[in-house]
Amino acid sequence: MRGVNLAFAALLLSGCASTGVVSESTPDNYQPPSVSSAQRSERGEHLEQRHGSLYSDSYMFTLFADKRAYRIGDILTVVLNERTLSSKSADSSLDKNTQWDLGIPVAGTRDVSDLALEVKSGVGFDGESSASQQNYLSGAITVRVTDVLPNGALSIMGRKQIRLNQGDEFIELMGVVRPEDIDVANRISSQRIADAKISYEGRGTLASASEPGWLTSLVTRFLNPF
């Protein structure tokens, strides 16, 4: 019985001992995105991690915490919903008529009507032009917070590359957002981005198929220069 009590006491003491932190190995080719010290602001400054503790100042997981991005290095998803429709038409006309008559007075009984002078001139111009364009972009891209402005707005930037069988697709986005416009799912619409710069580009066979060849462009340029 005494041996059982000693074994139970040893088990309790081993449970109270602190365990060391196990470091996870990262692949050799993986490099996390670096943030320069100049980009860190008062609101998004780096907080040192405390290993071996259940509480960390740099990251907390609670049932009531706000998980929306608001610090440098945080990520959020931008829902792309861009639609542009533009049309322009112009119609102009110009008419100008001028008439000038010069009469010669009659002297005596001689007919001098042949000496009369009459000048007429007219100018006319009609022009009409129209143009229309429609673009639509939808999808999603995950970006990273690169800076926190003094007023609390967030500067974001991200790039997405999709490699398909016949080419590559690139999407780049940067701009400024308000934390209030980010929903509880950590998403924001692209229509809520200020100073937005969205670039969509394709490379490869599919992108080349939608462009005319160099010979077609050369012939079209010389035969129809207007």
UniProtKB/TrEMBL annotation:
Gene Ontology cellular component annotations, sorted alphabetically: bacterial-type flagellum basal body, distal rod, L ring; cell outer membrane
Annotated Basic and acidic residues bias: 40-49
Signal as UniProt keyword: yes
GO molecular function, one term: cytoskeletal motor activity
A biological-process GO annotation: bacterial-type flagellum-dependent cell motility
Annotated region described as Disordered, given as residue ranges: 22-49
Signal peptide: 1-19
Subcellular location(s) of the protein: Cell outer membrane; Bacterial flagellum basal body; Membrane
Keyword Transcription: no
Membrane topology designation: Lipid-anchor
UniProtKB keywords: Bacterial flagellum, Cell outer membrane, Cell projection, Cilium, Flagellum, Lipoprotein, Membrane, Palmitate, Signal
Chain intervals with Polar residues compositional bias: 22-39
InterPro entries (alphabetical): Flag_Lring (IPR000527)
Major localisation: membrane
TM segment ranges: none
Family: Belongs to the FlgH family.
Functional note: Assembles around the rod to form the L-ring and probably protects the motor/basal body from shearing forces during rotation.
PANTHER family, per database record: FLAGELLAR L-RING PROTEIN (PTHR34933)
Subunit architecture: The basal body constitutes a major portion of the flagellar organelle and consists of four rings (L,P,S, and M) mounted on a central rod.
Designated name of the protein: Flagellar L-ring protein
Species this chain originates from: Bowmanella pacifica
